[in-house]
Amino acid sequence: MEDFYNHLYQKQLEVQDMPSNKRIAEWAMNVLHLLFPERNSKSFESVAEIKLAFEQAEVELFELLLKTKACSHCDNREVAAIFFTELPKIYNCMLTDAQAIMDGDPAARSIREVIRTYPGFTAICIYRIAHQLWLLGVPLIPRILTEHAHSKTGIDIHPGAKIGEYLYIDHGTGLVIGETCIIGNHVKLYQGVTLGALSVAKSMVDTQRHPIIEDYVIIYAGATILGGETVVGHHSIIGGNVWLTNSVEPYTTVYHLPNSKFIDSKPTV
Amino acid sequence: MEDFYNHLYQKQLEVQDMPSNKRIAEWAMNVLHLLFPERNSKSFESVAEIKLAFEQAEVELFELLLKTKACSHCDNREVAAIFFTELPKIYNCMLTDAQAIMDGDPAARSIREVIRTYPGFTAICIYRIAHQLWLLGVPLIPRILTEHAHSKTGIDIHPGAKIGEYLYIDHGTGLVIGETCIIGNHVKLYQGVTLGALSVAKSMVDTQRHPIIEDYVIIYAGATILGGETVVGHHSIIGGNVWLTNSVEPYTTVYHLPNSKFIDSKPTV
Amino acid sequence: MEDFYNHLYQKQLEVQDMPSNKRIAEWAMNVLHLLFPERNSKSFESVAEIKLAFEQAEVELFELLLKTKACSHCDNREVAAIFFTELPKIYNCMLTDAQAIMDGDPAARSIREVIRTYPGFTAICIYRIAHQLWLLGVPLIPRILTEHAHSKTGIDIHPGAKIGEYLYIDHGTGLVIGETCIIGNHVKLYQGVTLGALSVAKSMVDTQRHPIIEDYVIIYAGATILGGETVVGHHSIIGGNVWLTNSVEPYTTVYHLPNSKFIDSKPTV
Amino acid sequence: MEDFYNHLYQKQLEVQDMPSNKRIAEWAMNVLHLLFPERNSKSFESVAEIKLAFEQAEVELFELLLKTKACSHCDNREVAAIFFTELPKIYNCMLTDAQAIMDGDPAARSIREVIRTYPGFTAICIYRIAHQLWLLGVPLIPRILTEHAHSKTGIDIHPGAKIGEYLYIDHGTGLVIGETCIIGNHVKLYQGVTLGALSVAKSMVDTQRHPIIEDYVIIYAGATILGGETVVGHHSIIGGNVWLTNSVEPYTTVYHLPNSKFIDSKPTV
Amino acid sequence: MEDFYNHLYQKQLEVQDMPSNKRIAEWAMNVLHLLFPERNSKSFESVAEIKLAFEQAEVELFELLLKTKACSHCDNREVAAIFFTELPKIYNCMLTDAQAIMDGDPAARSIREVIRTYPGFTAICIYRIAHQLWLLGVPLIPRILTEHAHSKTGIDIHPGAKIGEYLYIDHGTGLVIGETCIIGNHVKLYQGVTLGALSVAKSMVDTQRHPIIEDYVIIYAGATILGGETVVGHHSIIGGNVWLTNSVEPYTTVYHLPNSKFIDSKPTV
Amino acid sequence: MEDFYNHLYQKQLEVQDMPSNKRIAEWAMNVLHLLFPERNSKSFESVAEIKLAFEQAEVELFELLLKTKACSHCDNREVAAIFFTELPKIYNCMLTDAQAIMDGDPAARSIREVIRTYPGFTAICIYRIAHQLWLLGVPLIPRILTEHAHSKTGIDIHPGAKIGEYLYIDHGTGLVIGETCIIGNHVKLYQGVTLGALSVAKSMVDTQRHPIIEDYVIIYAGATILGGETVVGHHSIIGGNVWLTNSVEPYTTVYHLPNSKFIDSKPTV
């Protein structure tokens, strides 16, 4: 066993210390709480207090970047500052997502219910925060954030995906959106939808491996759309359980034709 | 940015303060712990202590209702009282669920194992608590509870669904039961089953959008059953991956006929 | 209600006290943190401290076994000791899994990212710990551990399954591996794959109910492979959404032939 | 060592389980927080919420009494109810204490400062709560409460002491007020004052062992007043460091005559 | 009782919300941890991380000031900035205090032991932080800080007192230093020493009520020095239990002449 | 400020990392909880569980010693083992202390009350644990432990003091027992007693600086006994506020003769 302990000790010496996944996730959840007072029991008595809370979140982000050694050749403080400068735009985008869910789900009674209880909304918000950090070149933290959302909601959106406004996500469990996906505005995605790669070889890093979904597309539960050359044209509807590896024209509706056999198994008397 | 902070401040002023999702979920988990000592490290030394613990849970529920402004024109205290009067009935129903899992899963070694480790059992119990609150007209809290279960188990049962006794749920991940579903007694549901709406338009609020599953039906993994007019007759068996949008008679067995192509890809020497 | 309280009190008297699921899961997560300093903010200043930490983990395991009354006719202390003697082997196996993910996923940027963020890796590691305890005859704890992983990752691997080295698991949500599955080396499993039982009757306890997957098999997302007599021969590829209940020869590729209907639904002007 | 472990185990079996000191102290601190919103970050949105919070505190007290087996031949629930019925009177008394400190200490800037920062005020409040429980015959809990205050403030007031309104306590450290002390209204006590027993023999249980302090008495720092027959008449002033074991008439001023020697120890050049 | 609840609700509405005492104390303890790595398990990997930690402490101070409404007619942010600009000076002063204890107590084995374990050192440090805030006109927070130190150490130093460098405080329990005290450099104070007011009338606010202690004075345990006109000249020694209400010249030694009676109480045979 | 941060960084590099005071204190409090089930809400179901708990406490002590680098030239593991071998003896000694308080204080109603609520008992127990570590040559930890007790109880016993059985300590606030004190059996000490050094010069390290108190001595509140050559003979009684710097024979009673002036200050009509 001594060898084993020595091995672990050597490995530890090589490893960079960095903030825990938990702390990184808490930072993002805190930003969400600041943006959506509906989720937040902590209330502010003045605009000055809100401003201060954002400043603290910026300092915390700076510290996370510093400790992750996020930026070797750039300025972590500047990255943190840019993120918060962009935040109002991200926030407006999140509002469009909440609206899309409210408009699309008959079971949604109010925007407050959407913001407080819809896992789809949480997952999209975390993605939008992670994606901004991804755009700023921050390593590891974006993936840690979307994995946190994945763990809580079963919805796995890679921070590298490009997603437009008014994204509707439903129950969401099992939804996967791959790294090089491009999704337009006003898209609706139901649970168990996969927007994945057709085949998966390590050599494909940095190529377009995942499909392009244009504006106003609806993809029902369990549909699978694969491949970097697959484009789903705008205003198309992809039915539940459809398996799609080729592009479809705009305004196309694709149905899955189930192939089932029915047997009468009533017990004979 | 000042405008942004002002906007958030204004929005906060409009928002009702209410208990956090975490606190609401903890209340329900505590009720479960009281009902199932197998899950509970806190032990009671007398019946009086158990009684007291339930009284505390009732006061806590009253507080949650009060702070949620659950009942504007009714008596929150009475709602809390009714809930706990109904609890023994709910408990008996949960026992039938545990028994159904114990009887149905070869991997289950004991009722204790079912109660402590089966996510399906946890999800059903939380649903049964949430459904009782739903029946009492409590807003928001039922959805918060079932979303908590969804997040922990991947099983999404809408609190509005009506479900009979002896519900068997298996691994469960990805299972979805919609708001207007009606499920009979002795039904078995495997993972990835969707009991959903055929199409989803906001105008369909308050209509029967989800299927009716009669007694003694078994629905295997990945099956999708959609639509408010779809009735699965009693003693039917719906096979894995079946896609069903029409009613079936009692005692029907439906198989998915897979359509696969087999290629020998052995490397030639 | 008095009867109800009396009933709960009687039931409590019959129930064994045992450590909470949370504590059991924390023990396993702590072992993982010791093995993978990448996940761990606590650093050790000497080999002696690492050794001590493992000794503490062993004492903690002993306590968990003792309190679970795990071993009625054997020596809990010895079981704990054997587990930690086997740990270096388990660790080496986990390293092969990390390598498999690193080699197989184009989106993985570094081994550190795999270890810190891939839910598949976490689920496999927890399974490997739970499986060792299962082999040692420990009741309940292995299932509690794999359910913890299931809850966090959506990946459900039964601790009784037998799994070789270099297991690749991807996003993983919805993956199910049943109790009597046997999986070879260098197998790749994508999300939503089910390795399950063909039919599920309680009488089948202790029989081979789940399939055998030989070496170098790849199973794509959403595929379902069922039955204890089903053997997937080595170097086979099972395509996405395939439904398989019979054995296939080595070097077989199976495609799902989708059956979809395309309709042009462009609005006419 | 086995004998030692056996001994501890036997002893444990004999010992009653009861709530921890920490939990008992938290109950009392919570009551204080309810009474003095100045100390309290939790705010209430309506009178109904305040009422509910007191009801919860009453249920918690009932549980503490139940678990302490406080009342073998009386009704713990009734004791809890009486305590809260008396609370408004106790509260008014606490207000007189705060006023006494505000009036008496030149360094006190506001009542809020007194309530938030004066250890003397905290110690008096805890005493007044503990004394009410003492009057109701509750065992152990009153002493646990005053020891909590002692630990936090260095002020040791036995819950059995009888103390009038407008008690002024200053810095307080080292102040001791014995079990059978009787203190009038408008009394001022400085730090290090002892109101103790003249001699201390176990046989003196239940006799008047500690002095009587009448109204409007001031006792300066470090004074020691001992004995159950010692009465300090009203409007008397006892100077710092005075040692008093006999009664003094009303309107008496007692000075300590210091006996010191002064030496010029200037270094000679 | 309704009246009582109404009364508390009204009072609550009048009360300012402000940060809890606990949070204010934690801020100060955190500053101490930053200054003295001997007390601190959190280690920094670079100067940049230390700088960031101070910036966070400054933001936190700003927030505390803002929420306390500390500065109605000045700039809370500027106050926070000034405090941290002055901190290196305060730190140097603390180092002289640690050195004074190390030099003066034969039981002190190392500076590390002084910094980690001497309550006198903790109390002085907290006083020095509180005094700087007092100088900047911050209300309430300085008193909350010194009361925190009082509660932990039994040492009560008013934040308004003026104290020079190299202050030696020993065991300290019961030591009191009043609001208008002036203490020179290289002074040694033993436990139970009171530097207090001669008489205490509310009208004396803002007058010099407490003594002046010049450089190199030693005051032994239990001595009491009172009055705003009392000056203890430099290089004087005040013996244990001395009661002093008049000034003494420099280089004076004052002994307490004990007045005791010895009785042989040997039991006769 | 950059210089300041650099300075702190340099200092940190020089400083040894060691466990926090809090963690060290928790270890000792845990040992106390194991010894006195009256203080302990955690109950054990078997002797084996008790044994295990002690083993864990031993491992924890070993870790504390290791991280404190307690023993450079000896075996930390052996030191931890010896401590626990000695623990039954220490425990028996603590029982004599509890009995002494029970026998001596009329206000003590039961041994359970003594063990749960008397700060004197807590302080003695912590001292006895710290003293054993002191005897084993452990640096720093013993002082950290007795300072913890000092902070909680106001009682300051140096871990180096030698104290016999049946020590009675009362309210205790302000009690000081110096490093080289020697105290016999059956000694009673009241609050504010100082057993200190006559003069305090750094050069006196390792000499006998504090008094010797023989068996069956009683020392009443506020008495001060100083000097390494001062011996209080057995069966002596030292009255309250006595100031003693010379030895007294066995069977001596010493009274403080108060010197007070009484003035009738009745207001004339």
From TrEMBL, chains A, B, C, D, E, F:
<dbReference type="InterPro" id="IPR045304">
    <property type="entry name" value="LbH_SAT"/>
</dbReference>
<keyword id="KW-0012">Acyltransferase</keyword>
<keyword id="KW-0808">Transferase</keyword>
<dbReference type="InterPro" id="IPR011004">
    <property type="entry name" value="Trimer_LpxA-like_sf"/>
</dbReference>
<protein>
    <submittedName>
        <fullName>Serine acetyltransferase</fullName>
    </submittedName>
</protein>
<keyword id="KW-0028">Amino-acid biosynthesis</keyword>
<dbReference type="InterPro" id="IPR042122">
    <property type="entry name" value="Ser_AcTrfase_N_sf"/>
</dbReference>
<dbReference type="GO" id="GO:0008652">
    <property type="term" value="P:amino acid biosynthetic process"/>
</dbReference>
<dbReference type="GO" id="GO:0016746">
    <property type="term" value="F:acyltransferase activity"/>
</dbReference>
